[in-house]
Amino acid sequence: MAGFHGVVTTYTTVVMFLALGAALNITTENRLRTVLMTGYNSGVRPKINSTEAIAVYLDVALHQVIEVVSKSQLLITNLRVKHYWKDEFLVWDPAEFSGLSKIRIPSEQIWRPDIYLFNR
Protein backbone atom coordinates (compact mmCIF):
# COMPACT_ATOMS: atom_id res chain seq x y z
CA MET A 1 0.00 0.00 0.00
CA ALA A 2 2.95 2.31 0.61
CA GLY A 3 3.95 2.14 -3.07
CA PHE A 4 0.44 3.08 -4.18
CA HIS A 5 0.38 6.06 -1.82
CA GLY A 6 3.68 7.29 -3.32
CA VAL A 7 2.26 7.13 -6.85
CA VAL A 8 -0.85 9.11 -5.86
CA THR A 9 1.25 11.71 -4.05
CA THR A 10 3.57 12.09 -7.05
CA TYR A 11 0.65 12.39 -9.46
CA THR A 12 -1.07 14.98 -7.25
CA THR A 13 2.16 16.97 -6.95
CA VAL A 14 2.66 16.96 -10.74
CA VAL A 15 -0.93 18.08 -11.37
CA MET A 16 -0.64 20.85 -8.79
CA PHE A 17 2.69 21.96 -10.27
CA LEU A 18 1.23 22.09 -13.80
CA ALA A 19 -1.83 24.02 -12.64
CA LEU A 20 0.33 26.51 -10.74
CA GLY A 21 2.68 26.85 -13.70
CA ALA A 22 -0.23 27.50 -16.06
CA ALA A 23 -1.65 30.14 -13.72
CA LEU A 24 1.71 31.92 -13.44
CA ASN A 25 2.63 31.52 -17.10
CA ILE A 26 1.14 34.82 -18.24
CA THR A 27 3.41 35.94 -21.02
CA THR A 28 4.93 39.39 -21.05
CA GLU A 29 2.91 40.26 -24.15
CA ASN A 30 -0.35 39.24 -22.50
CA ARG A 31 0.50 41.28 -19.42
CA LEU A 32 1.37 44.30 -21.56
CA ARG A 33 -1.82 43.95 -23.60
CA THR A 34 -3.86 43.84 -20.39
CA VAL A 35 -2.14 46.96 -19.06
CA LEU A 36 -2.59 48.86 -22.34
CA MET A 37 -6.19 47.91 -23.05
CA THR A 38 -7.58 48.33 -19.53
CA GLY A 39 -9.67 51.48 -19.76
CA TYR A 40 -8.76 52.08 -23.43
CA ASN A 41 -11.62 53.54 -25.49
CA SER A 42 -11.31 53.15 -29.26
CA GLY A 43 -13.90 55.90 -29.74
CA VAL A 44 -11.66 58.57 -28.19
CA ARG A 45 -8.92 60.32 -30.18
CA PRO A 46 -5.57 59.10 -28.80
CA LYS A 47 -4.21 62.49 -27.84
CA ILE A 48 -3.53 63.60 -24.27
CA ASN A 49 -4.09 67.25 -25.24
CA SER A 50 -7.40 67.02 -27.11
CA THR A 51 -6.89 70.42 -28.79
CA GLU A 52 -3.90 69.13 -30.77
CA ALA A 53 -4.21 67.45 -34.14
CA ILE A 54 -3.05 63.90 -34.78
CA ALA A 55 -0.55 63.57 -37.63
CA VAL A 56 -1.50 60.63 -39.83
CA TYR A 57 1.00 59.49 -42.45
CA LEU A 58 0.00 57.48 -45.51
CA ASP A 59 1.99 55.06 -47.64
CA VAL A 60 0.29 54.17 -50.90
CA ALA A 61 1.76 51.42 -53.05
CA LEU A 62 0.47 50.31 -56.42
CA HIS A 63 0.00 46.57 -56.13
CA GLN A 64 -1.61 45.75 -59.46
CA VAL A 65 -2.98 47.39 -62.60
CA ILE A 66 -6.19 45.51 -63.25
CA GLU A 67 -7.49 47.24 -66.34
CA VAL A 68 -6.80 50.24 -68.56
CA VAL A 69 -9.69 51.57 -70.60
CA SER A 70 -8.17 54.25 -72.82
CA LYS A 71 -11.42 55.23 -74.54
CA SER A 72 -12.99 56.36 -71.26
CA GLN A 73 -9.63 57.20 -69.62
CA LEU A 74 -10.26 54.71 -66.85
CA LEU A 75 -7.53 53.00 -64.82
CA ILE A 76 -8.57 50.24 -62.43
CA THR A 77 -5.90 49.35 -59.88
CA ASN A 78 -5.31 47.47 -56.68
CA LEU A 79 -3.56 49.65 -54.09
CA ARG A 80 -2.11 48.91 -50.69
CA VAL A 81 -2.64 51.78 -48.27
CA LYS A 82 -0.88 51.85 -44.89
CA HIS A 83 -1.42 54.62 -42.39
CA TYR A 84 0.64 55.46 -39.32
CA TRP A 85 0.07 57.67 -36.31
CA LYS A 86 1.13 57.88 -32.69
CA ASP A 87 -1.44 56.71 -30.17
CA GLU A 88 -0.44 58.48 -26.96
CA PHE A 89 -2.50 56.07 -24.86
CA LEU A 90 -0.62 52.99 -26.13
CA VAL A 91 2.87 53.74 -24.81
CA TRP A 92 4.95 51.88 -22.24
CA ASP A 93 8.45 51.53 -20.87
CA PRO A 94 10.02 48.43 -22.49
CA ALA A 95 12.21 47.94 -19.39
CA GLU A 96 9.07 47.15 -17.39
CA PHE A 97 8.06 44.42 -19.88
CA SER A 98 11.24 42.39 -20.42
CA GLY A 99 12.46 44.70 -23.19
CA LEU A 100 9.30 44.25 -25.30
CA SER A 101 9.13 47.30 -27.56
CA LYS A 102 6.50 46.26 -30.14
CA ILE A 103 3.14 44.56 -29.89
CA ARG A 104 0.40 43.73 -32.37
CA ILE A 105 -3.16 44.64 -31.48
CA PRO A 106 -6.06 44.00 -33.88
CA SER A 107 -7.11 47.25 -35.54
CA GLU A 108 -10.72 46.75 -34.46
CA GLN A 109 -9.64 47.27 -30.85
CA ILE A 110 -7.89 50.64 -31.27
CA TRP A 111 -8.73 54.12 -32.54
CA ARG A 112 -8.40 54.48 -36.31
CA PRO A 113 -8.52 57.68 -38.34
CA ASP A 114 -11.38 58.22 -40.77
CA ILE A 115 -9.71 58.03 -44.17
CA TYR A 116 -11.64 58.01 -47.41
CA LEU A 117 -9.98 57.57 -50.80
CA PHE A 118 -11.89 58.77 -53.79
CA ASN A 119 -11.21 60.10 -57.26
CA ARG A 120 -13.16 62.80 -59.08
TrEMBL record:
Report if keyword NADP is assigned.
Answer: no
Its annotated compartments are: Synaptic cell membrane
**What GO molecular function annotation could you give as one example from this UniProt entry?**
acetylcholine-gated monoatomic cation-selective channel activity
InterPro entries per the UniProt record, alphabetical: Neur_chan_lig-bd, Neur_chan_lig-bd_sf, Neur_channel, Nicotinic_acetylcholine_rcpt
Keyword list (alphabetical) reads: Cell membrane, Ion channel, Ion transport, Ligand-gated ion channel, Membrane, Receptor, Synapse, Transmembrane, Transmembrane helix, Transport
Under which name does UniProt file this protein? Neuronal acetylcholine receptor subunit alpha-3-like
State the annotated membrane topology for this chain: Multi-pass membrane protein
Residue intervals of the Neurotransmitter-gated ion-channel ligand-binding domain:
30-119
Q: What PANTHER family does the record tag this protein with? A: NEUROTRANSMITTER GATED ION CHANNEL
Q: Specify where it is mainly localized.
A: membrane
- Note one Pfam family from the annotation: Neur_chan_LBD
Sorted alphabetically, the Gene Ontology cellular component annotations on this record are:
postsynaptic membrane
Query: So where does this one cross the membrane?
Result: 6-27
Superkingdom of source:
Eukaryota
Q: Which organism is it from?
A: Branchiostoma floridae (Florida lancelet)
- UniProt lists the gene as LOC118412675
